[in-house]
Design brief:
Elements: H1 2-19, E1 27-35, E2 40-49, E3 52-64, E4 67-73, H2 79-85, E5 93-95
Parallel strand pairs: 4-5
Antiparallel strand pairs: 1-2, 2-3, 3-4
Length: about 120
């Protein structure tokens, strides 16, 4: 449980940092969504730019089966690299935005490392 608490802390720390950046255009805000009970984390951009609605996910991360699943990463440097710098083992990070058949070639977890006693979430 301590491992997962650490992962939750790292994810929130990274997302809070990105939330501080405001787009240089339009009336757009960064909105942080954190659900620690279900382990879902998102950073969204919400607002308007030149009569056009802005509503999109910049970062979406889940914790599943003891691993950090990066569902979407719209950052330049990559959230996975930041997590590794914080001490998260690469095998505990799944680049879920890659197709399952490509994941073994990413150098990160594949999402198939679950042991039989782990339950789906």
């Amino acid at each position: 449980m301590a491992k997962l608490d650490g992962y939750r802390h790292y994810i929130q720390q990274i997302l809070e940092e990105y939330c501080q950046y405001q787009p240089a255009y339009g009336d757009v805000e960064m909105e942080l969504i954190i659900d620690t009970e279900r382990d879902h984390y998102q950073l969204m951009s919400v607002g308007w730019h030149n009569q056009r609605r802005i509503h999109g996910v910049l970062i979406h991360i889940d914790i599943r089966h003891g691993q950090i699943w990066i569902q979407h990463d719209g950052t330049e440097g990559g959230i996975a690299n930041e997590l590794v710098k914080l001490g998260v083992p690469k095998e505990d990070i799944v680049l879920a935005f890659h197709a399952p058949y490509k994941r073994p070639y990413t150098g990160f977890g594949t999402g198939t490392e679950r042991t039989p006693h782990q339950t789906a979430s």
